[in-house]
Amino acid sequence: MPHAYVDGSYNVSTKRFGYGIVLFTDAYNADGTPQEIRMSKAFSHDELAEMRNVAGEIMGAAQAMKTAKALGLKELTIYHDYEGIAKWCTGEWKTKKEWTKKYKAFYDEISQDITVTFQKVEAHSGNQYNDIADKLAKEAVGNK
Fold it and tell me: What is the pTM for the complete model shown?
């Protein structure tokens, strides 16, 4: 089943936030290994930067969903270490800030085309792909 590991990071000195994603499609390489796509991106946005790394987490989860849809996938499991990524979408947490409201609205719209499930993983627990997503997010914003 297609799945993605997402993580976010924030650089205090530059006030930039970003994400790292490791996405596995339902396709396989010639050697039989699952097709893997790695993505990262940093952003500068004063209002969103107030959310620090959570802004990166939100942007990463949204990008994973967009990419899965663009690839024609019908389902995606998102592995995340920040619980809001799932709980804002499922309604377990109230969306109080403008950007959490936008994230929930985005999820509601895209989930009409793709079934998204969420799986919480512990941060910095040795999960290989969560660690890679974390590293990609940190590199994107200039953190070591």
Answer: 0.93
